[in-house]
Amino acid sequence: MSALVDGLARLEYRGYDSCGIAGLENGKIFLKKRPGKINQLREEIKNHLSDKLLLGILHTRWATHGKPNQANAHPHLDCHHDFAIAHNGIIENYLKLKDELIGAGHKFASETDTEVIVHLIEKFYKGSFEEALIKTVAKLEGSFAVAVISRYHPEKLIGARKGSPLIVGIGKNENFFASDIPALLPFTKKVIYLNDGEIAVLTRNNVNIFSFSAKPLKSRIEKVKLKAEDAQKKGYEHFMLKEINEQPEVLKKTFSLYCKNNKLNFPDLSFRPSYLKNIKKIFITACGTAYHAGYVAKYFLEQYCGVDAEIDTSSEFRYRKLNIKQGDLLITISQSGETADTLAAVREFRRKGGKALSICNVLGSSLVKESDGLIYTLAGPEIGVASTKAYTAQIFSLYLFALYLAGIKKSLTKNQIQATLNELSKIADYQKEILDKCVQVQRIANKFSKLGSFLFLGRGINYPSALEGALKLKEISYIPAEGYPAGEMKHGPIALIDEYRAVVCIAPRDNLYEKMVSNMQEVKARRGNVFGILNYGDKEASLLADEVIHIPHLKNQFLSPLLVAVALQLFAYYAAKHIGCDIDQPRNLAKSVTVE
Ligand code: AGP
I need a surface site. Which of 170, 172, 288, 574 has the fewest CB within 10 A? Predict the structure, then answer.
């Protein structure tokens, strides 16, 4: 059982405000749960961690319904403690179900939506565990991945999936459920990705899968390519720092996979060139950092491919009245492939007849299953809640796709494509140069982290860089930070400038450089503290900045977000470290937002 707790700890990045464990011991369910992190729970359950305990469910929570306290932590039990459940997702009709169950005499112990599920199982249980679950899931609206144990069936672990990820791990004389692959890696690399509408029944030596209508289904065992150590820190103090430093390797791997002998090829794209050639409009949708990557892509898709490209956050995109025309393409971007709003946006777009290309980092994720075409980012497991290597991998993959599309559309000449590919092949080395400035970045971060709030300014393709730099800083240091198009300064934000505010100015020598210099002058004239992200050898802007990180100058400045990102990731990391924040697991956040 202690190995299971280790497995759970590998999922802590998905949510960590409370945790719990339920197991079968001497014919009874024992339950231990508490607010706080898994290591605190480990202490409390150490005398239950004997290996004679052969069946259990564990959960680490990101609170949706009910604050993070002991009562609301998972697992949850039914009235007579015959069943225990762990759940990921949101049961949208839980209040109605809860009223009905209370009316039928059920006693609830928490404020959660999850608890209605285990009481429904109790209500429907007439001897068959599977049947009780089938009747239960038929009542549920919303999203769920559940694992359930019962003291009536000490040999069985059953689970069901609809809208939230659930993976079966096939071990030697043992089988597992998990929400994500890292938890399984120490035990097995043989997995079955459950699909929506499927139930799995696990015993020590068997796995049976069937649909919510009880139709038996074939097992589809896949081999995971990741290694257990991929999801470890490898000597870095934080996952985030490890992942920032992995970026050059990720880009080299991506380049070598998708560009062989100067020929671009995407094995899982599955869109015919004849379809791609006629694309006139590309919609882009994502959340958070992935949204910023899509925003960068918008600029170069327009620039290179002569298409209209529009971007919106998934939470907005999914509710808009879209004017989708035949042949329009949706590009969705998601590290986890499980972000609820992005999944909903893809489903809605495809329902309306559009085609979706997903840029995703997790094989077997829901988004992968629900897309018409795929480009995998090869970033490996990203454990730090703040997305870093996935971000630059997303942008890099989208650059390569844009050049591929430009070749099909002949919107760029072969020489132009080749010149850009040549420079893309050097980006990893340029990133290394910036990573080598970590001591300088740390000094600047220590100095600036004392300031009360930040404004990040950029123009053109580095406006999204400003948005991303602000998000990185705020989500791990909790310092108020806002990304803004520099041209908007005079329309309001300039009122904020004074000696207590830091202004990060992203000003590579591109066609908007002079405009950025003017913005820096406006900030300096109002005693703002300027941190410049500038090119080597910069004279003019450097004179205006209080602190500068110089980055390599690129012939094609459209590639500069790949370098700016590394400088601002390091800046955010060291600012949060200086303040003493929990960098890999910032408060209130979770790595994958699988609920709306
Ligand atoms: C980024 O640092 C955040 N962790 C968050 O904004 C994240 O990018 C967003 O939730 C999207 O996640 P996804 O890429 O897995 O869809």
Answer: 172
* 36 and 177 share one domain: yes
Whether residues 295 and 270 fall in one domain: yes
Say how many domains are in the chain.
3
Q: Is 409 helix (H, G, I), strand (E, B) or coil?
A: helix
Q: Ligand 1: which atom is nearest the Cα of residue 394?
A: 14
Do 209 and 122 lie in one domain? The reply is yes
Q: What is the pTM of this model?
A: 0.83
pLDDT (tens digit per residue) in 528-550: 999 999 999 999 999 999 999 99
* CATH code assigned at 478: 3.40.50.10490
Residues 81 and 186 in one domain: yes
Looking at 409, 425, 441, which one is the last position of a domain?
Answer: 425
Q: Which residues, judged by CB distance below 6 Å to any ligand atom, belong to the binding site of ligand 1? A: 287-290, 334-336, 339, 342, 385-387, 475, 592-593
Verify cis geometry, omega within 30 degrees of 0, for the bond prior to 75: yes
d(CA 484, CA 334): 23
Distance between CA 218 and CA 394 in Å, rounded? 34
pLDDT in tens, 9-68: 777 777 778 889 999 888 899 899 988 878 888 877 777 666 566 788 988 887 777 788
Alpha carbons within 13 angstroms on the beta-carbon side of residue 115 total 23
CB-based contact 456:466 (threshold 8 Å): yes
Q: Could you tell me the CATH number of the domain that includes residue 178?
A: 3.60.20.10
Contact in structure between 482 and 503 (CB atoms under 8 Å): no
- Strand-pair partners of 211: 198
Among the three residues 425, 443, 478, which one is the final residue of a domain in this structure? 425
Alpha helices (runs of H) in 545-592, residue ranges in sequence order: 561-579
Distance 389 CA to ligand 1 centre (A): 12
User: Is 471 in the same domain as 385?
Assistant: no
Which atom belonging to ligand 1 lies closest to the Cα atom of 591? 4
Same domain, yes or no, for 420 and 469?
no
Order of strands across the sheet that contains 18-25? 28-35, 18-25, 56-61
For atom 4 of ligand 1, which residue has the closest CA?
386
Same domain as 377, residue 248: yes
Residue 458 corresponds to which tokens in the numbers above? Answer: 């950029």
* Residues 584 and 13 sit within 8 Å (Cβ to Cβ): yes
Its domain, for residue 308, covers 233-425
Q: Is 548 helix (H, G, I), strand (E, B) or coil?
A: strand
Whose tokens are 């979706």? That residue is: 356
Q: Is 87 helix (H, G, I), strand (E, B) or coil?
A: strand
Same domain (yes/no): 102, 153: yes
